[in-house]
Design brief:
347 residues; alpha+beta; Uridine Diphospho-n-acetylenolpyruvylglucosamine Reductase, domain 2; Uridine Diphospho-n-acetylenolpyruvylglucosamine Reductase, domain 3; Uridine Diphospho-n-acetylenolpyruvylglucosamine Reductase, domain 1; 3 domains; six-stranded antiparallel β-sheet; 23% helix; globular; oxidoreductase; flavoprotein; UDP-N-acetylmuramate dehydrogenase activity; NADP; EC 1.3.1.98
Length: 347
């Protein structure tokens, strides 16, 4: 068997891949795609591994680690700039690049770990921005047809923390992403109160472009939302559950109990109300630092982040997720869905 997936995930969990190839040069993609045909199973694609729970048994096929980098930009008129980014480029490098070039549109994504290629899969977002807001096209290899395709944003099936790349696992490997950003020295309006408080500005303010990046990082750090490089909370994947959508009765129940509610419009124009998954866990008696399974704990900073320590296994981590979701369902009737992507069998 091949290389351990635990070496390529932030949880540091996961057994061996049958074969692992690192893709660094876009020009060599045809050779790698040809090599993938040796395997009966579709390849698994990894970026930074910051949202992956890999099985203890590993992956019975090819794992492709995307490490291509590069950013190019061209003006397209009316102050808009089209930015094309290779899939392996860290998302944080892209955010820093856009701020340095006075390009607005993804500044509030500062602090989100992972690669640019992974961002469309989850439709990564924070503080009122999501990657789908500015994404115009994705270049991907379609393993079903064996061809490289160029998908416009309208064909990507974007929703709250989802896309067709997530709902059709194994079909796609994202090779590059194209965004349409706006040349500006000011950020998009601040729409989150706790960020406005951190920046010391009223809601709706458009601060100088670099300021919200520093504010986002400070706010995320204060709430335990940055992926630490060391310490007791280092082995994690961030939030482990999506904020669940609520029925009107559930929303009334959560609101009456003082729970935070988030409202947003869906792709079909309906308004969706979501509860805080972390608040629901705490209502069920869970707390930061709590032991959940052998080697698996709530982080020391927040209940919604689970961390692995010595003795942890992917099986124990997955069991902890199922146990938490079952308790919330039993006590509130609200279904929690895990956010990490499961890789391999027997999880």
């Amino acid at each position: 068997m091949g290389e351990q997936l635990s070496q390529h995930t932030t949880l540091r969990l996961g057994g061996p891949a049958q074969e692992l190839l690192t893709h660094t040069d876009p020009a060599t993609w045809p050779d790698l795609a040809h090599a993938a045909r040796r395997h009966p199973n579709p390849p698994c694609t990894l970026g930074g591994g910051s949202n992956i729970l890999a099985a203890d048994a590993g992956y019975p096929g090819l794992v492709i680690r995307m490490a291509t980098t590069g950013i190019s930009a061209r003006a397209v008129g009316d102050g808009a700039v089209e930015v094309t980014v290779q899939a392996g480029e860290p998302l944080q490098h892209l955010v820093r690049y856009t701020v340095a070039e006075h390009l607005s549109g993804i500044e509030y994504l500062a602090g989100i770990p992972g690669s640019v290629g992974a961002a469309p899969v989850q439709n990564s977002g924070a503080y009122g921005q999501q990657i789908a807001d500015t994404l115009t096209a994705v270049t991907a290899h379609d393993w079903r047809s064996g061809q490289i395709v160029h998908l416009p944003a309208t064909s990507c099936g974007f929703g709250y923390r989802t896309s067709r790349f997530k709902t059709e696992p194994g079909r796609w490997t994202i090779l590059a992403v194209t965004l349409r950003l706006t040349r500006s020295r000011h950020a998009a309006p601040v729409t989150y109160q706790h960020l406005a408080d951190t920046l010391g500005v009223p809601l709706g303010t458009r601060p100088p472009l670099a300021e919200p990046v520093d504010g986002v990082l400070a706010d995320r750090r204060s709430r335990g939302l940055l992926l630490p490089i060391d310490g007791p909370d280092a082995r994690q994947v961030g939030s482990v559950f999506l904020n669940p959508p609520l029925t009107p009765n559930q929303a009334a129940m959560v609101g009456a109990s003082g729970g935070p509610l988030n409202r947003h419009d869906s792709t079909d124009g309906r308004q969706i109300v979501r509860a805080s998954a972390g608040w629901l866990l705490q209502q069920c008696g869970h707390h930061p630092g709590q032991r959940l399974a052998p080697g698996v704990y709530c982080s020391t900073r927040r209940t919604l982040t689970l961390v692995a320590s010595d003795g942890a296994t992917a099986t124990a981590f997955a069991t902890a997720l199922r146990t938490l979701a079952s308790q919330v369902m039993r006590q509130t009737g609200i279904r929690l869905r895990p956010e990490p992507v499961m890789v391999g069998h027997h999880i």
